[in-house]
Amino acid sequence: MAKKQVLVACGAGIATSTVVNSAIEEMAKENKIDVNLIQIKIAEVNSYVDTADLLVTTAMVKTSYPFPVINARSFLTGIGLEETKEQILNELKK
User: Fold this and answer.
1) Alpha-helix runs per DSSP H in the chain
2) For 65-90, how does the pLDDT look when each residue is reduced to its tens digit (9 = 90+)?
3) Which of 8, 47, 71, 92 places its Cα 20 to 30 Å from the Cα of 62?
4) How far apart are CA 79 and CA 76, in angstroms?
5) Checking phi first, is residue 86 left (phi over 0); if not, alpha (psi -120 to 50) or beta?
6) Nearest to 53 by CA among 91, 1, 10
């Protein structure tokens, strides 16, 4: 399985993306999935359009990208968290 490049984005690229980034890092390690996590501001996503495999974000996304986008606000609220984790794992295993 090729190493996946995963963008983890929030509004400022500092606070909520750090929470999500840590969770994905742990999930990947537990499942022995090789990922390259890049923590960014949502405004920076276009810079990675040609190289990213997945975007996981706590910000609102209205733009379409050539890779899957997973809303990760459940990491902050706890509501639907297991479903979001499952979505992320499914994309990482593709």
Assistant:
1) 16-30, 74-77, 81-93
2) 999 999 999 998 999 999 999 999 99
3) 92
4) 8
5) alpha
6) 91
Contacts of 71 (CB under 8 A, 6+ apart): 57, 58, 61, 84
Is 10 a catalytic site residue? yes
Query: How crowded is the C-beta side of 5, counted as CA atoms within 13 Å?
Result: 10
What's the one-letter identity of residue 58?
T
Residue of 10, 28, 55, 88 marked catalytic: 10
* Residue whose pair of structure tokens reads 């960014």 in the numeric block: 40
Question: Strand, helix or coil at 39?
Answer: strand
